[in-house]
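Follow-up to my post from last week.
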Amino acid sequence: MREFAYQRVTQVREALTLVAENDGSRYLAGGTNLVDLMKCGVEAPTRLVDVRSLPLGGVREGADGGLVIGATTTNSDVAAHPEVRRRFPALSQAVLAGASGQLRNMATVGGNLLQRTRCAYFADPSQACNKRVPGTGCSAVDGAHHNHAVFGWSRHCVATHPSDMAVALAAFDAVVHYETLDGGGEIPLSEFYPPVGDTPQQETVLPSGALITAVSLPKAALSPWSRYRKVRDRASYAFANVSIAADLGVHDGVVRDVRIALGGVASQPWRARSAEAFLRGGPASFGTVPGGG
Amino acid sequence: MAFHRLSTCAVALGEKGVALNEDTHSEILLHVNGVKHCLSVDNRTTLLDALRERVGHTGTKKGCDHGQCGACTVLCDGRRVVSCLMLAVAAEGAEVTTVEGLGGDGELLPIQQEFVRLDGFQCGYCTSGQICSAVGMLAEYAEGWPSAVTAPGSEPVLDAVEVRERMSGNLCRCGAYPSIVRAVLETAARGEVTG
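User reply:
Got it. Predicted complex:
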């Protein structure tokens, strides 16, 4: 592992300045992915700016009646929060479907969104990987690829985004809030991860040096019955072969609105918008879905 | 090599007036099992390596060193974490509890007693991680935390399915899982303070 400086910060501006002053700086929160990748030689920061002491933790009511989840809130605290469980059950389920109890106690919401793919070729610096070193090629295309993308991939990269949490956030039309030295901004989660194209190294549209401060969930969840389901190689503590977060609003037997997001199938949480359009306005019955029931 | 306390260091001022600490080593105060240890560490040192090689507490085991096996599980401020993915510098300020800090004066905690009574181990390499994880897990359950197998909208009831899910971050290559699950359930049934 490359040597690095370490600094703990208590103010957002301090964190932004430290990262802006040094290209090799990275924000450190739970470290469950970053520290592991540093051990593998995939990440080699020269400075870690520890953001866990910033005042960015906790879940609160948003101005629109939705929820605002601070970026340094641990995954465990999100999943256990009474309002998340009551109003956005698929989010609590999705978080609990990821990683292990230990990792969820460490990992934060901001870090979860920024975690890197678990493609084995990405994690192995001896292999060609356009995401890790642009222009070197993709070992996964011809390699073991049973867990790689089926939607939205390109010949440059077939890696998937591993987050369960982000799948539920995509279904709920969550918004990512960030700060930079030039001011703050927000990005809908549906636009947060750009298409792969020929730039798989470009994993988010966050401005350079930006720090995620919060994720907000709009009030408009469709029902208290949203759910997350996940299929994986073993019963627990494994990444998704495929997962789904879904929410359904029904009025008078008619599908008023529906949201479906798929995980483990693309470089971003994949909103199944055609399926949503097919179901919207139709009868809320098992027979709506070919083969359903 | 000069060492600097993280909280007070001011090695150089960057252009924007924020103190830049360029040191790749730090002097840290690590709280382990109620004792403070002042250590000079390479920033790359994990909490796991600091505990084993600097503090001398070898009860915490190194299995995969990648956060996948749970053998290195300790409690940080009462919550279970994998010490192989936590940097020692990042653990400064937290109260770290290792297996050596559980129980005391020759007394075993109920969870430790049940592991012994029910053979919750074979080779024993994963055991300290299993026990620290179980202590953290039972505290999480006591706080009402749900798990992936808890039905949404209902409160969790600790049964074998819940224990298996909640303990899935701790691997046992000997396959002592049935006894581990029983030991955790028996401990919960005793209803005594575990940590």
